[in-house]
Amino acid sequence: MKRLLLALTVVALAACTTTSPDVIQRGDAQRLSTVTDATVLSVRSVTVDGTQSGVGATAGGVVGGIAGASRGNSRESVALGVIGAVVGGVIGNAVERSSTREDALEILVQLKNGERRAIVQAKGDENLQPGDPVILVSTGGKVRVTKAPPTTTSEPRS
To answer: What PROSITE patterns is this protein classified in (predicted)?
Structure first.
C-alpha cells in the first residue's frame, strides 16, 4: 500500500510544471530565440490557476478505493471501496489543483514601436519596476520577460 501511494505521488508530482522565467524547459534549450526590446509600464501580482489533468483525481480514487475496500466484510468492502474512490478522487483533484497553482506577475510592456503587450509569468528572482528596460525572449510561442542587459558602445578598431 505504501509503495502504491509513493508511486502515485511521484506520478502526480511529475505532472507539475512552472512558468518561472528562471526555469527553461528542456525543449527550449539550444533553440534560437527572438529578442525584443521593451519598457515596463506596470507590474501586478496575479495567480495562475492550478491544473486539473486528472492525475490527482485518478491517484486519489485508486488510493481511496483500495483503502475503502480493505475495510469490513465483502458487502461492506464494495460499498466502502466505491465511497473511498469518490472521496479520494475529489481530494486528489483538489490537491493537484492547489499544488500546481503559482504566484505570478502580469507585466505590461511597451515596445520600441509604441505597441503594448501583456505577459503573465511566474515570479522570478528579478524585481521588475515601471520604467525598467526589459527584453522579451520569444521561443516556440512562449515569451518571458527579463531585465535588459546593460548596453555598451564599442569603438571601431584601427
So the answer is: PROKAR_LIPOPROTEIN
**CA dist., res. 59 & res. 9, Å (int):** 8
Q: Are 63 and 84 members of one domain?
A: yes
The three cell numbers of residue 18 are 512552472
CATH number at residue 44: 2.40.50.590
DSSP per-residue string spanning 18-48: ---TT---GGGTT---EEEEEEEEEEEEEEE
**Range list of β-strands (E), 18-132:** 34-48, 102-111, 116-122
> 80 and 72 in contact (C-beta within 8 Å)?
yes
> What letter represents residue 53's amino acid?
S
Whether 54 contacts 90, CB under 8 Å: no
The reply to whether the predicted model has a pTM over 0.70 is: no
Query: How far apart are the C-alpha atoms of 52 and 46, rounded to whole Å?
Result: 19
Strand partners, 155: none
